[in-house]
Write a structure and sequence with these properties.
Elements lengths: L2 E5 L2 E3 L5 E8 L8 E6 L6 E6 L6 E3 L7 E6 L4 E6 L8 E7 L9 E5 L2
Parallel strand pairs: 2-10
Antiparallel strand pairs: 1-3, 3-8, 4-5, 4-9, 5-6, 7-8, 9-10
Length: 114
């Protein structure tokens, strides 16, 4: 079945960087655009970044543009999110998602605090 396993989250200080990853299985990873979403406490899940199947096109939420970079490795069925200049407003559970597939993983918690 379709599975997403996110990892790499943690507690970091403001201004630092973190790289989170998501390993996908159960479908043809290279055939799908992939996105990262996040959900902060008490808020709705929101879009963060997207990368197309062959990594030609990427787009970002305005709140992370210039700080976050999405990438993927189709040989490893993995999508990454490099997060720089983190701020407390980036605190959330981060989820990866494949376009047109209604499956979600457990997410990885990112907490930015001094």
């Amino acid at each position: 079945q379709v599975q997403f396993v996110e990892s790499g989250g943690g507690l970091v200080q403001p201004g630092t960087s973190l790289n989170i990853s998501c390993v996908a299985s159960g479908f043809t990873f290279s055939a799908y655009s992939m996105r990262w979403f996040r959900q902060a406490p008490g808020k709705e899940r929101e879009f963060v970044a997207q990368v197309t199947r062959n990594s030609v096109f990427r787009r970002y939420a305005d709140s992370v543009k210039g700080r976050f970079t999405i990438s993927r490795d189709n040989a490893k069925n993995t999508v990454y999110l490099q997060m720089n200049s983190l701020s407390p407003e980036d605190t959330a559970v981060y989820y990866c998602h494949a376009d047109d597939l209604d499956y979600w993983g457990q997410g990885t918690q990112v907490t930015v605090s001094s």
